[in-house]
TrEMBL record:
Organism of provenance: Gloeothece verrucosa (strain PCC 7822)
Protein name: adenosine deaminase
This enzyme's EC code(s): 3.5.4.4
Enzyme category, top tier: hydrolase
Cofactor(s) demanded: Zn(2+)
GO cellular component: cytosol
GO BP term, example: hypoxanthine salvage
Domain Adenosine deaminase: 5-320
Keywords: Hydrolase, Metal-binding, Zinc
GO MF: adenosine deaminase activity; metal ion binding
Statement: the UniProt record of this protein carries the keyword Signal: no
Length: 348
C-alpha cells in the first residue's frame, strides 16, 4: 500500500549498491576489475566520509554510468524498489541533467542534449506495474558555468510536464564566491513561475540567508535550528519546509549522533516550521525511507504524532502532488464508503 512521499532524493545516489555493482560486472570492465567482490564494493560505497565534499565525489562514480542509454535501466529498478519496499506514492527525483550528457560533446551540444535526458527520465519514471506519481527537480551546480545553469532553469520552465522545480547542488561551501550569481538565477526562476528548493544550511559552511527569500523549500537546512534559530520566524512566515535527511548528516561527518537532530525537530515544531523526512541518497546509504522513520522514533528524536505531522507536511509541500490529501486520508475515505460505520461495528 503506497502511503509516503520522498521530496529529496538524488538520482545519482538512489541506486542501491547491489544493482550498481551488478551493472559494473555486466557492462563496465574497468569498474568490474576495480570492485571484483560485492562486499568490498558495498563497504566502499556506503561508508561514512569525513566531509560533504568527499561524500559528493561518490556521485561522479554513478554519473559516469548514468547515460541516455542506461538511465531507463537504473530508473526502472529505482521505481520498483521505492514502490515495493518503501511504500512510496510520490517521489521527486533531483539531478543535474548536464552531467548525464555525453562528455565528448561541446558545451553547446551538451546543453542541447539536456532536453533529451529530461524526456528519458520522465518516461522511464512512468512504470505501469508500480503506479507512483513522480516528478523531476533539475539541479543547477556550483561547478557549472552561469550559461549552463541558466539553461537548466530555462529547461525546467519549458517542461512542466516532467519538471516541478529547480535546486542548486555541488556542495554548499562552494556557493560563497558565486552567491550573487545564484541569487540572480533564483530570481529569474521565480519570474518564470518555477518552484524552488536549494541545498542550504546543511553544514556550517553553507549558511547563506541571502538565498532564503527565493526558496519555497530548503534542502536540509538543519543549521537554521542548530546555529541560527532566530531565522526560524522568517522560515515560518515564508511557509518554507525543511527537507531533513537524517542518515546523510552522519555519512558526511556533519553530525556525530542522531540525538543531535532532536533539537532540530523540537525547535522547528515550536516555531511552526514544517519538516519533511527524506532519504537524500538512499543507495549511498543503503537505507530506505521507512527506516528513517523508524530510526527517529526508536531513538526518541520524534514521537508518532510528530512523525505523522512530517508525513503530512511532505505531501502538503510536494511540488507535483495533485490532491488535497495524503494517500492515507484518501484510503480512509474509500474504506468508509465501502464499509459504513454500522457494518464495521457489526463485523467485530
Amino acid at each position: 500500500m503506497a502511503l509516503y512521499a520522498d521530496l529529496h532524493r538524488h538520482l545519482g545516489g538512489s541506486v542501491v549498491p547491489r544493482i550498481l555493482w551488478r551493472y559494473f560486472q555486466r557492462h563496465d570492465d574497468h569498474l568490474a576489475q576495480r570492485f571484483p567482490k560485492y562486499n568490498e564494493f558495498e563497504e566502499f560505497y556506503t561508508r561514512e566520509r569525513s566531509s560533504l565534499d568527499e561524500y559528493l565525489e561518490l556521485h561522479t562514480l554513478v554519473e559516469s554510468v548514468q547515460t541516455a542509454k542506461t538511465l531507463p535501466y537504473f530508473i526502472y529498478r529505482l521505481i520498483r524498489g521505492a514502490y515495493i519496499f518503501e511504500n512510496l506514492a510520490y517521489l521527486e527525483l533531483r539531478y543535474t541533467p548536464y552531467y548525464r550528457t555525453a562528455e565528448h560533446l561541446s558545451e553547446f551540444e551538451r546543453i542541447e542534449q539536456m532536453a533529451e535526458i529530461v524526456e528519458i527520465v520522465g518516461k522511464a519514471s512512468q512504470v505501469k506495474e508500480y503506479p507512483m506519481i513522480t516528478s523531476q527537480i533539475l539541479c543547477m551546480h556550483t561547478r557549472l558555468p552561469y550559461q549552463v545553469n541558466k539553461a537548466i532553469v530555462d529547461l525546467a520552465a519549458s517542461r512542466p510536464d516532467y519538471v516541478c522545480a529547480i535546486d542548486v547542488a555541488g556542495g554548499d561551501s562552494h556557493l560563497a564566491q558565486r552567491l550573487d550569481e545564484f541569487v540572480s538565477l533564483y530570481k529569474y526562476a521565480r519570474s518564470l513561475g518555477i518552484k524552488t528548493t536549494g541545498h542550504l544550511f546543511e553544514t556550517t559552511n553553507g549558511c547563506y540567508p541571502e538565498l532564503l527569500p527565493y526558496l519555497m523549500r530548503i534542502g536540509h537546512g538543519i543549521q537554521i535550528p542548530l546555529k541560527y534559530p532566530e531565522l526560524l520566524k522568517e522560515v515560518a512566515q515564508l511557509q518554507q519546509c525543511l527537507e531533513i535527511c537524517p542518515t546523510t548528516y552522519f555519512k558526511t561527518g556533519t553530525l556525530e549522533e542522531i540525538s543531535q537532530l532532536k533539537i532540530v525537530f523540537d525547535r522547528c515544531f515550536e516555531a511552526g516550521v514544517d519538516i519533511a523526512i527524506c532519504t537524500d541518497n538512499a543507495g549511498l546509504h543503503n537505507v530506505r525511507l521507512p527506516f528513517e522513520y523508524e530510526n527517529l522514533l526508536t531513538q526518541d528524536v520524534i514521537d508518532f504524532a510528530q512523525l505523522e505531522s512530517c508525513q503530512d507536511a511532505a505531501f502538503r509541500h510536494a511540488f507535483a502532488w495533485p490532491y488535497q490529501q495524503r494517500p492515507a486520508s484518501l484510503l480512509t475515505g474509500l474504506l468508509k464508503e465501502t464499509y459504513p460505520d454500522e457494518q464495521l461495528v457489526n463485523s467485530h
